[in-house]
């Protein structure tokens, strides 16, 4: 079985042998875009090269980029534990052309890598194209020999990529792998496309136009290429699995979580172990990149992720901090590829342990209150918003933690009631408040955060420049 670590290296080596510079992963905290919450795609560190603001000594690059999608425009947090193919932290493999090669080469590179170097059977692959992109459809047919029914035209914005309201944009092609008839799901563009049968593995973006304010699109004199492939999804396929969480790396983390609690990784708490394994990665990598749990901004997203994992651990019987004890298992899996984990091991462990120590007492009391309140609810009745707010305000339960806890019981939270309770408290606080100019700015931020949630707020303001492969 090819390990995830070997797949990553093979990908980078392949593109290196085709003239691409191997560039190390950039930080999860975007260095060139203050409006973006986290690096959420491989192209983010290269934005200024695509717009032409910056040039470098190379015109082709390849990366394995650390990515977090737990806030803003791309928020996959609620998928984790429930889908076979979403993580909050994952690695995006990519190859990039900055005004160098274009569609034909991008398609050929991808196709040869998949079908020759990794020997994926051609009949299990499909490609989508943007409906108006006849050129791409023709190239797929010519280069790969795919039949017309395997080249699917999609007319929606899913297959048209834009960096922002203005700037580079263009059609894209997504490559899908077909897990076969025994798995439920329809091909891309069909009504049941959300099933697990057809999994998107690789997205090729053809940056062909520059969009001016007002919507006029001019052809770029030197079009560019941006691609992104999820390493975990690719590894699952190469390792003969249908589920990302069954790959070597994820499985080792799931087993560490189960072992720490003397449990069966595939027992009744299976999905909790998956959540813990996923959140362990986002937590450790975010701290390694300098994010610390806090009450706003990126730190609040991290805190939400950490507390959520901690609730799952607590539910599985953890009586004292265990989350940080899983860190060595992660370092065994990923420390060689990402030395920052090793370098910052002590800080990561202390931060995890400290947060868990602080939260455990609150968590226990909060959960007791929650189960007491739930026992009084009628069948299918939502949890009243003021209770969810009390859990947030007094016990430090992020709203999504409460929702996650209730989801297991098929219950929801009255979100409007939650917002109303939040607004009421704000009004009280404001009436009592006399502060400095700085605090005023903070209040504005908190108002927005209260309204949209921390990540949504940052995500909202980043909508214009948010990157999507
Ligand atoms: P999906 O439609 O499955 O949510 P996407 O179109 O949002 O994926 P892209 O933005 O195109 O994903 O990202 C490029 C690649 O990164 C995808 O083709 C996929 O392989 C991978 N990927 C995207 N989101 C995730 C995630 N949450 N966890 C793991 N891999 C992901
Ligand atoms: Mg997505
Ligand atoms: Mg997609
Ligand atoms: Mg995509």
From TrEMBL:
<comment type="function">
    <text>Catalyzes the attachment of alanine to tRNA(Ala) in a two-step reaction: alanine is first activated by ATP to form Ala-AMP and then transferred to the acceptor end of tRNA(Ala). Also edits incorrectly charged Ser-tRNA(Ala) and Gly-tRNA(Ala) via its editing domain.</text>
</comment>
<protein>
    <recommendedName>
        <fullName>Alanine--tRNA ligase</fullName>
        <ecNumber>6.1.1.7</ecNumber>
    </recommendedName>
</protein>
<keyword id="KW-0175">Coiled coil</keyword>
<dbReference type="GO" id="GO:0004813">
    <property type="term" value="F:alanine-tRNA ligase activity"/>
</dbReference>
<comment type="similarity">
    <text>Belongs to the class-II aminoacyl-tRNA synthetase family.</text>
</comment>
<keyword id="KW-0479">Metal-binding</keyword>
<dbReference type="GO" id="GO:0006419">
    <property type="term" value="P:alanyl-tRNA aminoacylation"/>
</dbReference>
<keyword id="KW-0820">tRNA-binding</keyword>
<keyword id="KW-0030">Aminoacyl-tRNA synthetase</keyword>
<dbReference type="GO" id="GO:0000049">
    <property type="term" value="F:tRNA binding"/>
</dbReference>
<keyword id="KW-0067">ATP-binding</keyword>
<keyword id="KW-0963">Cytoplasm</keyword>
<keyword id="KW-0694">RNA-binding</keyword>
<dbReference type="GO" id="GO:0005829">
    <property type="term" value="C:cytosol"/>
</dbReference>
<dbReference type="GO" id="GO:0008270">
    <property type="term" value="F:zinc ion binding"/>
</dbReference>
<keyword id="KW-0862">Zinc</keyword>
<dbReference type="GO" id="GO:0002161">
    <property type="term" value="F:aminoacyl-tRNA deacylase activity"/>
</dbReference>
<dbReference type="GO" id="GO:0045892">
    <property type="term" value="P:negative regulation of DNA-templated transcription"/>
</dbReference>
<keyword id="KW-0547">Nucleotide-binding</keyword>
<keyword id="KW-0648">Protein biosynthesis</keyword>
<keyword id="KW-0436">Ligase</keyword>
<feature type="domain" description="Alanyl-transfer RNA synthetases family profile">
    <location>
        <begin position="2"/>
        <end position="469"/>
    </location>
</feature>
<dbReference type="GO" id="GO:0005524">
    <property type="term" value="F:ATP binding"/>
</dbReference>
């Amino acid at each position: 079985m090819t390990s995830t670590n070997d797949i990553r290296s093979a990908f980078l080596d392949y593109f290196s042998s085709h003239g691409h510079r191997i560039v190390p992963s950039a930080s999860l905290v975007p260095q060139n875009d203050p409006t973006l919450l986290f690096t959420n795609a491989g192209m983010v560190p290269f934005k200024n090269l695509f717009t032409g603001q910056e040039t470098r000594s190379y015109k082709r690059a390849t990366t394995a980029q650390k990515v977090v999608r737990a806030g803003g425009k791309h928020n996959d947090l609620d998928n984790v534990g429930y889908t076979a193919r979403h993580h909050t932290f994952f690695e995006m493999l990519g190859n990039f052309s900055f005004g160098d090669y274009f569609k034909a080469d991008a398609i050929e590179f991808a196709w040869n890598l998949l079908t020759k170097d990794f020997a994926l059977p051609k009949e299990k692959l499909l490609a989508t194209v943007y409906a108006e992109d006849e050129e791409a459809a023709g190239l797929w047919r010519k280069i790969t020999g795919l039949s017309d029914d395997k080249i699917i035209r999609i007319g929606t914005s899913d297959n048209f990529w834009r960096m922002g309201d203005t700037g580079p944009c263009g059609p894209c092609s997504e490559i899908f792998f077909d897990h076969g008839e025994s798995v439920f799901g329809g091909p891309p563009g069909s009504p049941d496309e959300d099933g697990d049968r057809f999994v998107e593995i690789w997205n090729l973006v053809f940056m062909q136009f520059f969009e001016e304010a007002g919507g006029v699109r001019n052809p770029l004199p030197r079009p560019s290429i941006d691609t992104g492939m999820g390493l975990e999804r690719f590894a699952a396929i190469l390792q003969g699995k249908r589920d990302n969480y069954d790959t070597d790396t994820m499985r080792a983390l799931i087993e560490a979580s189960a072992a720490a609690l003397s449990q069966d990784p595939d027992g009744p708490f299976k999905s909790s172990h998956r959540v813990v394994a996923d959140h362990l990665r986002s937590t450790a990598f975010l701290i390694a990149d300098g994010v610390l749990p806090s009450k706003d901004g990126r730190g609040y997203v991290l805190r939400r992720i950490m507390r959520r994992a901690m609730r799952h651990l607590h539910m599985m019987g953890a009586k004292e901090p265990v989350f940080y004890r899983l860190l060595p298992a992660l370092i065994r899996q990923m420390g060689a590829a990402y030395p920052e984990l090793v370098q910052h091991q002590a800080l990561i462990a202390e931060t995890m342990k400290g947060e868990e120590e602080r939260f455990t007492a609150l968590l226990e009391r909060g959960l007791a209150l929650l189960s007491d309140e739930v026992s009084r609810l009628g069948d299918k009745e939502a949890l009243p918003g003021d209770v969810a707010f009390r859990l947030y305000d007094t016990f430090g339960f992020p709203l999504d933690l409460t929702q996650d806890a209730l989801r297991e019981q098929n219950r929801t939270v009255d979100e409007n009631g939650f917002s109303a309770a939040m607004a009421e408290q704000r009004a009280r606080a404001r009436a009592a408040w006399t502060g400095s100019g700085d605090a005023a700015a903070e209040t504005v931020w908190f108002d927005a955060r209260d309204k949209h949630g921390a990540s949504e707020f940052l995500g909202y303001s980043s909508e214009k420049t948010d990157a999507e492969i």
